[in-house]
Amino acid sequence: MTQHIGIVACSAEGASLCYRTICTEGAALLGPHAHPEVSMHTPSLADYVACLERGDLRGVGALMLASAHKLADIGADFLICPDNTIHQAFPQVEPRSPLPWLHIAEVVAAEAADRGYRRLALTGTRWLVDSEVYPEKLAARGLAFLRPDPAERDEIDRIIMEELVRGTFKPEAVATIQTITDRLKLAGCDAVVLGCTELPLIIDDTHSSLPTLDSTRLLARAALRRAVQDADMPA
């Protein structure tokens, strides 16, 4: 038997992509139509946004832990969170969690190191890009990074929060991300972290000037590997 994956979700579009990836790519490891057991809990996105807007990481952590306990109660073996931004609260969550977690930025940093990248462009919400979620995990792997400039951060944040999380995908948004990626490439980046789980819905390697590190699918694939490889091990 495989392990039961618990998804601590925040925004619907990113969580849905993570869930679909686990279910559709499970067959490559387990056979036709097969995937590990998956459960997901999602409080209202408005509750998370309210905490983020007032800088209340304790509140963010409380929401994450409430989901964690509900998933533990229904039999999940370990947890993932397909939302980069709320990983700011992870240091408060992990010591109090009923289950172990995979950390999205650790998964991305490991992939970047394995591919031989050295300096990453970091994209995501304003909260994520301004935080230490990625810098800490990248530094642990000896990786450098560049953030977009303040105006670029604001525009990416607007695209994410006003369009992508609502399922709105516009050509203008794609062009904006491409322009920012182009500039960061000229500044010396050799790959771009899609550090919002909705960004892979509008940008990928086929139309990005830098190789993309798709945090959503990378996390889903890491969860799949853990669910299969640790199937006979206690959580």
What is the strand and helix layout of this fold?
Blueprint: E1 5-8, H1 12-25, H2 27-30, E2 38-41, H3 45-53, H4 57-73, E3 78-80, H5 90-93, H6 104-115, E4 119-123, H7 126-129, H8 133-140, E5 144-146, H9 150-162, H10 171-186, E6 191-194, E7 212-214, H11 215-229
Parallel strand pairs: 1-2, 1-3, 4-5, 4-6, 6-7
Helix pairs in contact: 1-11, 3-4, 6-8, 6-11, 9-10
What does this structure look like?
The structure is a single chain. The protein has eleven helices and seven strands. It has a four-stranded parallel beta sheet with strand order 5-4-6-7, sandwiched between helices. The chain has two domains: 5-103 and 217-229, Rossmann fold (3-Layer(aba) Sandwich); 104-214, Rossmann fold. By secondary structure, the protein is of the alpha/beta class. The chain has helices spanning 12-25, 27-30, 45-53, 57-73, 90-93, 104-115, 126-129, 133-140, 150-162, 171-186, 215-229, and strands spanning 5-8, 38-41, 78-80, 119-123, 144-146, 191-194, 212-214. α3 (45-53) runs antiparallel to α4 (57-73), α6 packs across α8 (133-140) and α9 (150-162) packs antiparallel against α10 (171-186).
